[in-house]
Design brief:
Blueprint lengths: L2 H11 L6 E5 L13 H24 L6 H36 L1 E6 L2 E6 L5 E6 L6 E5 L5 E11 L5 E11 L2 H12 L1
Antiparallel strand pairs: 1-2, 2-3, 3-4, 5-6, 6-7
Helix pairs in contact: 2-3
Length: 187
């Protein structure tokens, strides 16, 4: 989406008398971590396709009428491989989908909260009030782009493990300035 459209959507999200202090859009080229799943997805999908080919091989190579046991395994094995192929293609599609979402996302810091708005068929908005923010973790590249993670809470899940909830601002320019603004507001 062009910047003016996203800016207009962001401005509609602001509360009455809320002042915009910073806004930024993620650069999809800076979200390299989303492609890490391909290191697993490609071999997974190749093996699933190989499995499916091998499962169909007896059907293609046979010139005689299959025995009942061949019918059973000739149907079960190919059906068993289909969900694995679907999972593989799904994993390979995830980075593409994440990049598309990044192109429709804008982050903002106001005098009251930090928010993320994603436009599309449905508008998604999430925000955290300044007084609800915990520790901040920042990772920045040499060009100033980076990620900022804000701890917003924690709870114990059903297994007894502590789960930390975070609000993430990913792949934005001048992330150090955003961190400085946040720290200044909290002080």
């Amino acid at each position: 989406m062009p910047d003016p459209e996203l800016d207009a959507i962001l401005r509609r999200e602001l509360l009455a008398s809320e002042r915009l202090l910073w806004s930024g859009r993620p650069d999809p080229r800076k979200l390299k971590a989303v492609f890490a799943i391909w290191l697993f997805a490609i071999p997974w999908t190749v093996f699933a396709l190989f499995w499916e080919a091998m499962a169909f091989m007896p059907w293609l190579a046979s010139t005689r009428t299959p025995e009942p046991i061949q019918w059973t395994f000739g149907i079960v094995f190919p059906l068993f491989g289909l969900p694995f192929i679907a999972i593989g293609f799904g994993m390979m599609w995830m980075p593409v989908r994440a990049l598309q979402k990044a192109r429709r996302t804008i982050y903002a810091l106001t005098d009251r909260r930090i928010l993320r708005v994603t436009a599309g068929a449905k508008r998604e908005a999430a925000s955290v009030m300044i007084d609800q923010m915990g520790p901040i973790d920042v990772k920045a590249d040499s060009d100033g782009y980076g990620n900022l993670r804000i701890q917003t809470g924690s709870h114990v899940d059903s297994d007894g493990d502590r789960v930390t909830e975070r609000f993430e601002v990913a792949g934005v320019p001048d992330v150090s300035r955003l961190e400085g603004l946040l720290l200044g507001m909290r002080a």
